[in-house]
Specification:
A 7-stranded parallel β-sheet has the order 3-2-1-4-5-7-10. Strands 6-11 form a two-stranded parallel sheet. It has a two-stranded parallel sheet with strand order 8-9. By secondary structure, it is of the alpha/beta class. The protein has 9 helices and 11 strands. The mean pLDDT is 94. It has a single domain, classed as NAD(P)-binding Rossmann-like Domain (Rossmann fold, 3-Layer(aba) Sandwich), CATH 3.40.50. Helix 1 links the parallel strand 1 and strand 2. Bound molecules: NADP nicotinamide-adenine-dinucleotide phosphate (NAP). NADP nicotinamide-adenine-dinucleotide phosphate binds next to helix 1 and strand 8.
């Protein structure tokens, strides 16, 4: 938990997996709040209330401050033009009706980077090649018109009851692909958010990925060998490494920027993050 006098307060749009982890970090920081959509999250330590981003009637529920929002809600519409229009309407409404809220940290996705081999940096020249990646990039660009924006692009978010270990336990399939999967532990992601909240001038965008991207099936193999509560029988049928499974084995997303900022990861790889039995909190 953060000391209340060391960090500015935030409003969290979307108390989902990351939002709830973040809310725990900001317990005791005055003026913080968070929103929920379908059901109130259990035991949220912050003031919280219902909010539907897609409904204009719901926007008035947002308080006048604090100055900084963290947006964890994913794009709502599939059509890019419609989503851009919706974001513009909301941004204009916010600027007019909530002028004290000037800053935003937007949780985007590494999905903005093309599904091609290469090393992708925050400032690389690129075009997303999926509709979801395009929607994310449109969101980043549109929100920057209305807020002083910092963007975080996380890889797969895991930890505290979510991840490949939990998939194995519940008998769910594990993706078979040679593409390295970039991951970030939810607690490290929350720490990156905290860093940006406290350091508004530090970076306009950061990739939030750990030091060892690996295909999911390789992680699953490591887990059954190294965790007492997991066994070989839980593994779905996984091809050996010589078989022709699709994927871009040389697609990498750089985390150099978070390292340069001096942000250290508590879970630098999946080994630290999943090596012991996952706890819910
Ligand atoms: N999970 C990953 O591996 C991953 C990887 C890269 C990026 N991301 C993105 O990072 C962000 C945070 O991830 P997360 O895992 O914390 O996501 P999450 O658990 O799905 O949280 C998203 C939150 O947004 C809320 N929401 C959805 N539609 C809404 C609406 N119309 N109005 C208001 N709130 C709405 C959800 O509430 P309800 O559930 O009640 O609708 C939920 O609380 C998301 O944008 C996610 O897409 C996730």
């Amino acid at each position: 938990m953060i000391k209340s006098d060391t960090i500015p307060p935030i409003g969290i749009l979307g108390l989902g997996f990351l939002g709830q982890t973040l809310a725990r970090e900001f317990t005791g920081v005055p003026e913080c709040w968070g929103t929920w959509h379908k059901t109130p999250p259990p035991e949220t330590p912050l003031k919280n209330f219902h909010f539907d981003w897609g409904s204009e009637n719901s926007w008035t529920a947002l308080p006048e401050g604090p100055e900084t929002l963290v947006l964890t809600i994913p794009p709502l519409l599939k059509n890019q033009d419609d989503e851009e229009k919706r974001l513009c309407q909301w941004g204009e409404w916010m600027n007019l009706n909530r002028p004290m809220i000037k800053r935003m940290i937007y949780i985007s996705s590494t999905g903005v980077y093309p599904k091609r081999n290469g090393i992708w940096y925050e400032d690389s020249e690129f075009e997303p090649d999926t509709n979801s990646g395009k929607l994310r990039l449109i969101t980043e660009k549109t929100l920057a018109h209305f807020f002083k924006l910092q963007v975080i692009r996380p890889g797969g978010i895991y930890g505290c009851g979510r991840g490949i270990d939990m998939r194995l336990k519940s008998g769910k399939p594990v993706a078979v692909s040679k593409t390295p999967v970039h991951r970030i532990h939810v607690k490290d992601l929350a720490r990156i958010v905290c860093y940006l909240v406290s350091n508004p001038e530090s970076a306009r965008s950061v990739n939030a990925v750990d030091n060892e991207p690996k295909p999911s099936w390789e992680v699953a193999q490591w887990l059954v060998r190294n965790r007492d509560d997991l066994s070989e029988e839980m593994l779905p049928i996984i091809p050996d490494s010589s078989s022709a499974v699709p994927g871009n084995s040389q697609r990498f997303i750089s985390n150099q920027r978070i390292l340069d900022l001096g942000i250290t990861l508590s879970y630098p790889t999946f080994r630290e993050g999943m090596g012991s039995v996952s706890l819910i909190s």
